[in-house]
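ESCALATION

Customer reports they have been waiting on this structure for their group meeting. Please prioritize. Original submission:
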Amino acid sequence: MTSPETFLRQAIALAAAAREAGNPPFGSLLVGPDGTVLAEAQNTSITESNISHHPELKLAVWAAQELPADVAAATTMYTSCQPCEMCTGALARSGLGNVVYALSGDQLNGLKTGGSFPAVPQSGPSLFDEARVPIDGYYN
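Update from on-call: job pushed to the front of the queue and completed.
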């Protein structure tokens, strides 16, 4: 069976290809329970003019659409960098089994000359009684 380091090196190679294509340098692959690479992706957020085209998000969407829940739960995503908050949310909803990353978010931010993206101010909660109406009972 292929080692986790081999899969991580493949993800890193995808990240290098993304950078060479003019995109942020991130790549991921999804490996099935038998060790077969089911799908791979690289960041295309610049060339496709879509801020959501991170490889982790693209693979999470693919898995949710294409894999039975039991197969998705048995997969492992190998990715060149720890998934961002957007991708982490998608991964939680996709049903994937595990994520293994090469570079942590803190390590990534340490490599950036300007640090992380600036936080967007948020305020709330507000209008609880009104906002809960469409949600009440949905998650039961």
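Sent to customer with the following note: The radius of gyration is 17 Å.
Escalation resolved.
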